[in-house]
Amino acid sequence: MKAVRVGLLGCGTVGGGVVKLMRRNAAMLAARLGARLELAAVADRSLKPDPSLGLYAELITRDAQALVTRPDIDVVVELFGGLEPAQSLILKALAAGKDVVTANKALLAERGDVIFKAAVKSGRFIGFEASVGGGIPIIRTLREALAADRQRAVYGIVNGTCNYILSTMAENGSEFADVLAAAQRSGLAEADPTLDVGGHDAAHKLALLVTLAFGVALRPSQVHTEGITRITLQDIAYAREFGFTVKLLAIAKHEDGAIEARVHPTMVPSRHLLASVNGAYNAIYIQGEALGSTMYFGLGAGEMPTATAVVADILEIARMRLAGATEASDHALGYPYSAIKPAKVKPMDRIACEYYLRFMAEDKPGVLGRIASVLGRHKISIASMIQQERAPQVPVVMRTHESQERDLRRALAEIHRRKIVKTEPVFIRIEERL
Ligand SMILES: NC(=O)c1ccc[n+]([C@@H]2O[C@H](COP(=O)([O-])OP(=O)(O)OC[C@H]3O[C@@H](n4cnc5c(N)ncnc54)[C@H](OP(=O)(O)O)[C@@H]3O)[C@@H](O)[C@H]2O)c1
Q1: What is the CATH number of the domain that holds 269?
Q2: Largest CA distance in the chain
Q3: In this predicted model, what pLDDT tens digit does every residue of 286-336 receive, in sequence order?
Q4: What is the CATH number of the domain that holds 410?
Q5: Is 205 a catalytic residue?
Q6: Same domain, 327 and 367
Q7: 386: which DSSP letter?
Q8: 46 lines ligand 1 (CB under 6 A)
Q9: What is the pLDDT of residue 8?
């Protein structure tokens, strides 16, 4: 039986899962492929041999640079993470005629232009299914299963840490800082959680989804990005009263040739499927012109879920290698690389949606009237309102009709500047028509 040989860079959480899955399912994978998938080498700076997993001392190396050019290796699987040395190693592997699999969304989102171009030049393939949605097969779905349709919009819950924090806050009534600390203790959040709770990880993933869905290139810096650190229990409770659930959504819409791309806390109707995606689960909800809406749901991270996506990529590449495909690389993003042009991005000022607003106002006659008058002057109309208990400081909470972001920001700045309210007004965007 022929063999396709795999060199692994990084044997941490995901790499460890890949080793286990390739070993556990070796017979089935060989049956599917008609050839053996063999682990030829693992480069990792801290890995110790573990014969129970087939990780014998002779498979382990500290020399990643040498691994990626070894003539007996066909596919290089990059699971180091980070930008360097991951990028240089991938480029070196491609130049040496290896196909590459990676789960590194940060690298692909930031340096995809260099990497995909190099893959095309070398005629090799880049598999990156695990980079968005972990085990959810969303890359292949957009690239192949939905390829006949024109996509209108993508809404993703693509960061499990944020989703876990927001759903635990809502469920247990605990504040953000307490839930984050507990998530860090249990390993659900990183020691430095900035990339996750700041929304940047979701922005990396959205940049990749935009290319697959709309065929244009988008840099993460072009995604309007807000994290979840300012979300309070009070806002989650008011959202519930209005019939909404707060989620960190990665949103991309394609309209009139321009792309709207944003990551921010969003109120979604509590009856919507996305509102029921809780804990560390991910979901991607796609609106297509011909198909209508579909949703893809599952675990977006973790050892074995992510490993399933990596090994499926290895299998796909192994099939292409065995079939002798040499120009396969040019469909990794669903379009020939040369056809992917920079996205025309709609400025945030020009987006329109409904808004949730919360003001902390003194309980004095006229305050509400002054707020409403500034909003009205800026063409913001109020759809409904909650004003509760009497106290020196009372929350005034509103839901607006659809408004322009530019008008809303001007109105809130004026309310703040004229000291009509005591603290900076809070606003959260609502996606009512999902
Ligand atoms: N974890 C998930 O659930 C998940 C989900 C989707 C995508 N991903 C992506 O998958 C990739 C890997 O994530 P992971 O969670 O598996 O990371 P991880 O647990 O930190 O594993 C990385 C492994 O590679 C080693 N390593 C890193 N840089 C190295 C270098 N320069 N030389 C030698 N060894 C090096 C690390 O060694 P040390 O431990 O000594 O640093 C570690 O053993 C990342 O790009 C991540 O974004 C992860």
Answers
A1: 3.30.360.10
A2: 84
A3: 999 999 999 999 999 999 999 999 999 999 999 999 998 766 668 899 999
A4: 3.30.70.260
A5: yes
A6: no
A7: E
A8: yes
A9: 98
Question: Which one is catalytic: 98, 205, 253, 346?
Answer: 205
Q: Can you state the angle between helices 13-24 and 26-33, rounded to 10 degrees?
A: 70
Residue 196: which residues within 8 A CB-CB, separation 6 or more?
159, 161, 162, 189, 190
Domain range holding 396?
351-430
Model pLDDT, residue 311: 98
Could you tell me which of 169, 250, 244, 238 has the C-alpha nearest to residue 207? 250
- Work out whether strand 393-400 and strand 382-387 pair parallel, antiparallel, or are unpaired: antiparallel
Cα dihedral value 399, 400, 401, 405, nearest 10: -130
For residue 340, being part of any structural domain is answered with no
44 lines ligand 1 (CB under 6 A): yes
Q: What is the pLDDT of residue 327?
A: 62
Phi-psi map region of 367: left, alpha, beta (phi>0 left; psi -120 to 50 alpha): alpha
β 224-225/258-269 pair status: parallel
Protein residue with least CA distance to atom 26, ligand 1 = 80
pLDDT, residue 326, reads 67
79 lines ligand 1 (CB under 6 A): yes
Residue 19 three-state SS: helix
Write out residues in the chain with pLDDT < 50, as ranges.
none
> How many residues comprise the chain?
434
Sequence-distant contacts of 289-294: CB under 8 A, at least 24 apart: 289/149, 289/150, 289/151, 289/152, 290/148, 290/149, 290/150, 291/146, 291/149, 294/146
DSSP state of 50: B
Contact 156, 199 (CB under 8 A): no
Amino acid 368 reads: L
Positive or negative, the CA dihedral 356, 210, 118, 87 is positive
Q: Is residue 345 part of a domain?
A: no
* Span from the CA of 251 to the centroid of ligand 1 (angstroms): 27
Does residue 210 share a domain with residue 222? yes
pLDDT digits (tens, 9 = 90+) for 335-377: 999 999 999 999 999 999 999 999 998 888 899 999 999 999 9
Check residue 72 and give its pLDDT: 98
Q: How many angstroms separate the Cα of 194 from the Cα of each of 189, 230, 247, 252?
A: 10, 13, 17, 22
Question: What does the radius of gyration of the chain's CA atoms come to, in whole angstroms?
Answer: 24
Concatenating the DSSP letter of every residue in 134-188 gives TTS-HHHIIIIITTTSPEEEEEEE--HHHHHHHHHHHHH---HHHHHHHHHHTTS
